[in-house]
Amino acid sequence: MNRVAVVGGGASGLTAAIFAAENNSHVTIYEGSERVGRKILATGNGRCNLTNLNADIENYYGKNVDFISYAKSKFWVNETLAFFESLGILTKVEGNGKVYPYSDQASAVLDVLRFKAEEKRVEVITSFEVCKVIKRKNEFEMISFDGRKAYADKVIIATGGKAAPYLGTKGVGYEILNSFGHRVTKLRPSLVQMKTETDVVRKLKGIKLNAEVSLESYKEYGEVLFTEYGLSGPAVFSLSSRLDNQKVISLDIMPEYKKEQVLDIINLRICQNPKHTLENFFVGILNKRVGQALMKFSGIEPLSRYAVTLSADEINRLCDTIKQWDFNIVGTMSWNNAQVTKGGVCTTDFDPKTMESKLVKGLYASGEVLDIDGDCGGYNLQWAWSSGFLAGSSAGKNSL
Fold first, then answer.
1. Which of 25, 41, 87, 197 is deepest in the core (most CB within 10 A)?
2. What is the SS3 string spanning 2-51?
3. Are 333 and 240 in contact (CB under 8 A)?
């Protein structure tokens, strides 16, 4: 019987195991943690954002993003929804096409995957952290960090990336595939908070606001959180996937208004309340502390001045800051804070129809370990399901 080993029991690994077992192969999952699917439980703030109705190639990144085209044609959003419906998951759609289980429980998603794997007689071996894979003639030998060995005819590397190492994703898959000659691109945290110069943000720590966030030509609208190290929130997370060599991230904190309208609002406010101090000038429009920070950032001090003392040049600078508040980027937070890995194993050395290595017959890879990552909002899980389906369906075939 065809023996298939799946290294990693996350979203992609569980999917690969289920579909490999569909072909009557003997499938074993080797998971380094004490249980499978830990990262699934953490997705979507514990709700599991399964996929996104708007998922398309434009939502993904990598040196060769067209690699996902075949997966998109074979097992994409509709097929994913049908698959989980067959497992017993009722879904619901929320803003921007995000799909969640109706129960709002990520644990339900993991449970139905485990139930299906059990039904298909997939063997699950936990606390078996593979550190090395060696091909010996027509079989693979897997060696754990504690020296245990296991054998298989085919191996699917579904170890995930380096993001959230506390959930068991430590990047070992890169080393395993690199040992077979596969190249690995530069790796960095993605879907993560951005670190900026802290003079302004530290004083605004804990404040949230809705803004249009820009990273050069890329824009996202949503909630922004000021932190002691920089900026966080969904809009910042989304743009972090596009971060390359950009040096500045900008906020438009009144995106519903054009600059001319903001100018009118400020001038009317001066006329109506000329004796209001600048310290309280934005009360009723913006968060008080944010308004004070805008004044100082625009070079307008002291804040004990009256509104009527604002010059035309100062008003213009204030409007410019409201519409484009620039923060110098100094980096991102660490792997512990990231949701996904940007970069990975080069996809050019894998068959996009099967996820099989072009360098080593019988060796496959799926999910985050490959150089494919997506936007925030269910896109990365969609890639996990799709690539897992292809890898498992192909590896499960009895031909060696």
1. 25
2. CEEEEECCCHHHHHHHHHHHCCCCEEEEECCCCCCCHHHHHHHHHCCCCE
3. no
